[in-house]
Design brief:
This protein is of the alpha/beta class and about 180 residues long. The chain has six helices and ten strands. It has one domain: Rossmann fold, CATH 3.40.50.2300. The N and C termini lie far apart (about 40 Å).
Length: about 180
């Protein structure tokens, strides 16, 4: 799955149709692949992954729109020797040990509160609600002309001690909510 997931991720970044004969995958299947690949294109401080026994955690806060796609995507995968796991949370306080956190649309009414609670933690915050970057979210999925695009707030990621690869940034729109 990893090789095909990476290929689909690269195709999505370049805006290329993956396979013409097959129907396009559901929106959240592609987003699951993006979440998986963020682990390859984002750097965490050494302290965030210091214990070799701890898993690399992709979390979902609120209603899970991914179904089994996210679990299937990370099954058997490792990041720097850390097994990848998916965890689901109903409370932001429970997501403290997470590395990538997708904040579901079901949490849109309290998005600013959630992002504020995570501020300063080494957690890549990802969402797909319209004002996600404006409240301090780091990576926002945007669907334009049937393709998933990224809006990335590099300053928010840096404030959390994260480094986003230029390979990922090249295909994204860089946003700075303070200037908008």
């Amino acid at each position: 799955m990893a090789r095909s997931a990476r290929w689909l991720f690269a195709a999505a970044l370049l805006g290329v149709a993956a396979v013409r004969a097959a129907p396009p995958p559901p929106e959240y299947q592609l987003k699951a692949i993006f979440l998986f690949n963020f682990a390859q294109f984002v750097g965490w401080p050494a302290a965030a992954l210091s214990n070799d026994q701890l898993p690399f955690v992709i979390g979902v806060l609120g209603d899970d729109p991914f179904g089994s796609y996210l679990d299937e995507t990370v099954q058997g995968e490792k990041i720097g020797g850390h097994p990848m796991v998916v965890r689901r949370y109903s409370r932001v306080e429970d997501a403290a040990g997470c590395h990538v956190l997708f904040i579901s649309r079901s949490e849109s009414g309290r998005m600013a509160e959630i992002v504020a609670a995570l501020r300063g933690r080494n957690i890549l915050t990802v969402g797909d609600v319209e004002d996600f970057n404006q409240v301090g979210g780091m990576v926002r999925f945007v669907t334009e002309q049937g393709r998933i695009r990224l809006r990335i707030d590099v300053q928010a990621a840096q404030a959390a001690g994260l480094t986003i690869s230029s390979k990922l940034l090249r295909s994204a729109t860089i946003v700075n909510p303070e200037r908008q």
